[in-house]
Design goal:
By secondary structure, the protein is mainly beta.
C-alpha cells in the first residue's frame, strides 16, 4: 500500500510539469504587439529662410524608424496645404537622428504648423501635432507716409495722417493691404484709428483735444502710424514726424468781494481767464482751473486755498475762507496729463494776477458773558469782572483765546474810562479780574493784543454796579446762657457802618430773629432801635433752646448787614 501511494503522487507531478512546459512554449510562440512608448518626434523645422525650403524632423525610437510624414498647414486651419514623405536620414542613426526631405517644399504665406507622423520597425506609429512652427508672415511696411500740418495751436487743432500700407508677396512684388486697422499715434499713444482702403491707402484727420479733466494730446511729440499685424502679415510702423504746438498767451484777472481782513470770514474771489487767438484777439478760456493762493509775510509761507473752474466765457468765482495772509494771488498753470501718464505744459502759456496792496488779515475776537459781582458792592470792597475771551479761527469756528492781555475798565459816565485791573486769560479763555469799588459806575473788559499778535482787539458790553456803604452788627450776644425756662433772655449788639472808616450808627432799626433747635427756619421776633452809640437790646422770655440773630435790612445808600448767630441753652 505505501508503494502504490508514492507512485500515484509522482505521476501527478510529472503531468503538471509537462503541462507547464507546454504552456510556456505556447506563450513564446504568440507574437507581442508593438509598443509606441519609446517612439518620439522631438521637433520639426525649416532648413532655410525664404518661400522654398527643406523640412527637417528630429525623432528617436528603441527600434529603427522606417517612415516620416510631415503635413504643413496654416496655423488657423485644420487641413494641410501640402504633405511630404520623401524624408532621408541625414545625421545620427535610424533609432535616433535627423531626417530631411530630399526636395524643397513650397511654403504658403502665414504662420505654418508642422504636424509629423513617425513609424518604426516594430510597427508602432506616433503623431505629434505642431512639432514645429515656421514663420512666413508677409513682410509689411508703410511705402508712403505724410503728417500735416506739423505745427498746431488751440484754434488750429486738426492734423491729417496719410499713406499706404503694403506687403511683399513670394515673388517680391508689393501689394496694398486692404481693411487693415491702423493706430494713429502721438507720443506713443493712439490718438485715433483708421482702416486702409482696398489698395492699402489711408487719409484720416485727427482733432487734438484739451479736456476738462486735464488730459490732452496737444503737446510737442512724435507722430507715427502703426500696424499691429494680422493672420498673414507682420506688424509695421511708419517713420516718425515731429508735431510742434504753439503755446498761446493768457491773462487772468482777480477781484475780491470785500477786504480779506478777518481770518475765518468768507470772501468771494472772482475774475476772468483769457487767451489769445491765432488772429491775436483775446477770448475767454473755458473749463480751465485757476488756483487761488495766499502769502503771509510774517510766516514767509504761501498756500493754495482754493481752485476755481472757469465757465464758458472764461469767468470764475470762488468762495474762500480767509486764512492768515498779507497778499492774494491767482495762478493759471496749464499743466495736463498725456496718454503716457506724464504731466506736461499744454497749448497755453501760464499767467497770474495778485493784489498790489498788502492786506493783513487778523482774528476777530470777542468777550462774551461779561458780568460784575457782587452787585451792589460795598464801598472799598473788591468787585470782580469776569467773561470769556474767544477768537474766530481760519475755519470760521469760535475758539478760546488763551493768555490774552485783558484790562478791567471803570467809568462813571461811560465816556471816560480808567484801568482798574489787568491780567491774562486762562487756558480756556476765561477772564477774572478784581478791583476796589470806590463809587457807583460802569465796568467793562478790554482785550489788547500783544505786539505781533494777528488779532483784533475787542471790548465787552458794559455792566453797571451800584456802590453802597457797608454795614455790620458787631458784639452781638444773647444772654444769659444757659438760662432757666421762663427767665429773660437779653439780645443785643452794635450796628456799624463804613463811610471812610468803620463807626457806630445811631437811630436805625435792627430786626431780631430766632431759630429753634432742630429747625432750619428763622422766625422774626422783634425790632430794636439803635441808641446814640449804635447799640440795641431787647428782652425775651426763655421758652426753648435755639439760636438768635440780628439783621439790618439796608437803605438806598447802605448795604444790609447782619450779625452772627448765638445759641442759647434753655433749661
Amino acid at each position: 500500500m505505501p508503494t502504490k501511494s508514492i507512485d500515484a503522487v509522482s505521476w501527478r507531478r510529472l503531468i503538471a510539469l509537462a503541462l507547464g512546459i507546454a504552456l510556456a512554449a505556447l506563450l513564446v510562440s504568440i507574437p507581442r504587439p508593438a509598443l509606441a512608448g519609446s517612439l518620439t518626434v522631438r521637433s520639426a523645422a525649416a532648413t532655410t529662410p525664404g518661400w522654398t525650403t527643406q523640412i527637417e524632423v528630429n525623432a528617436a525610437s528603441d527600434s529603427d524608424i522606417t517612415k516620416i510624414t510631415a503635413r504643413l498647414r496654416l496655423g488657423d486651419t485644420a487641413d494641410p496645404f501640402t504633405t511630404v514623405e520623401d524624408f532621408e536620414l541625414v545625421s545620427g542613426t535610424a533609432t535616433g537622428g535627423i531626417w530631411r526631405t530630399s526636395q524643397p517644399v513650397m511654403l504658403e504665406m502665414g504662420v505654418i504648423h508642422v504636424d509629423v507622423d513617425a513609424t518604426d520597425a516594430s510597427g508602432a506609429t506616433v503623431t505629434r501635432k505642431v512639432a514645429g512652427i515656421i514663420d512666413r508672415l508677409g513682410k509689411t511696411r508703410f511705402s508712403e507716409f505724410t503728417f500735416s500740418p506739423s505745427t498746431v495751436d488751440i484754434d488750429r487743432d486738426t492734423v491729417t495722417y496719410a499713406g499706404r500700407l503694403v506687403f511683399e508677396d513670394r515673388d517680391g512684388n508689393e501689394h496694398g493691404i486692404p481693411g487693415a486697422q491702423l493706430c494713429l499715434a502721438l507720443n506713443g499713444a493712439c490718438a485715433d484709428y483708421t482702416t486702409t482702403d482696398p489698395d492699402g491707402r489711408f487719409s484720416s484727420p485727427v482733432r487734438l483735444y484739451v479736456r476738462p479733466d486735464h488730459r490732452t494730446n496737444m503737446v510737442d511729440s512724435d507722430a507715427s502710424v502703426s500696424y499691429h499685424g494680422a493672420r498673414l502679415y507682420r506688424p509695421a510702423e511708419s517713420p516718425r514726424s515731429r508735431l510742434k504746438v504753439l503755446r498761446q498767451e493768457t491773462r487772468v484777472s482777480m477781484s475780491l468781494s470785500s477786504r480779506p481782513e478777518v481770518i475765518g470770514d468768507t470772501v468771494q474771489v472772482s475774475g476772468r481767464l483769457e487767451r489769445k487767438t491765432a488772429e491775436g484777439q483775446w477770448t475767454g478760456a473755458a473749463n480751465q482751473d485757476v488756483d487761488i493762493y495766499t502769502y503771509d509775510s510774517d510766516l514767509g509761507y504761501q498756500a493754495r486755498v482754493a481752485t476755481a473752474r472757469t465757465g464758458s466765457d472764461g469767468s470764475y468765482s470762488q468762495s474762500v475762507k480767509v486764512p492768515q495772509a498779507t497778499q492774494w494771488v491767482v495762478y493759471f498753470r496749464p499743466e495736463y496729463l498725456t496718454g503716457d501718464g506724464n504731466w506736461v505744459f499744454g497749448p497755453y502759456l501760464p499767467s497770474s494776477q495778485g493784489t498790489r496792496e498788502v492786506i493783513y488779515s487778523e482774528h476777530r475776537t470777542s468777550i462774551s458773558g461779561f458780568k460784575v459781582s457782587p452787585n451792589p458792592v460795598g464801598k472799598g470792597a473788591q468787585i470782580t469782572g469776569s467773561g470769556l475771551l474767544t477768537m474766530q479761527d481760519a475755519t470760521g469756528a469760535v475758539v478760546p483765546l488763551t493768555n490774552g492781555r485783558v484790562e478791567l475798565h471803570f467809568s462813571r459816565d461811560r465816556k471816560n474810562w480808567s484801568v482798574a485791573a489787568e491780567g491774562r486769560s486762562g487756558t480756556e479763555g476765561q477772564v477774572s479780574l478784581r478791583a476796589t469799588a470806590g463809587s457807583s459806575g460802569y465796568w467793562r473788559l478790554n482785550y489788547l493784543p500783544d505786539y505781533g499778535d494777528r488779532d483784533f482787539g475787542s471790548v465787552s458790553v458794559t455792566a453797571y454796579a451800584a456802590v453802597k456803604y457797608r454795614t455790620t452788627i458787631s458784639s452781638f450776644n444773647a444772654a444769659p446762657e444757659p438760662v432757666k425756662r421762663g427767665r429773660t433772655i437779653t439780645v443785643g449788639g452794635t450796628l456799624k457802618r463804613y463811610v471812610s472808616s468803620w463807626g457806630s450808627w445811631s437811630g436805625q432799626w435792627v430786626y431780631l430773629y430766632f431759630q429753634p433747635r432742630g429747625s432750619s427756619t428763622w422766625t422774626y421776633m422783634a425790632v430794636a432801635k439803635t441808641d446814640r452809640y449804635g447799640k440795641f437790646r431787647k428782652g425775651f422770655k426763655a421758652s426753648r433752646d435755639g439760636s438768635w440773630m440780628a439783621k439790618y435790612k439796608g437803605a438806598t445808600s447802605y448795604l444790609p448787614g447782619s450779625s452772627g448767630s448765638d445759641y442759647v441753652d434753655v433749661r
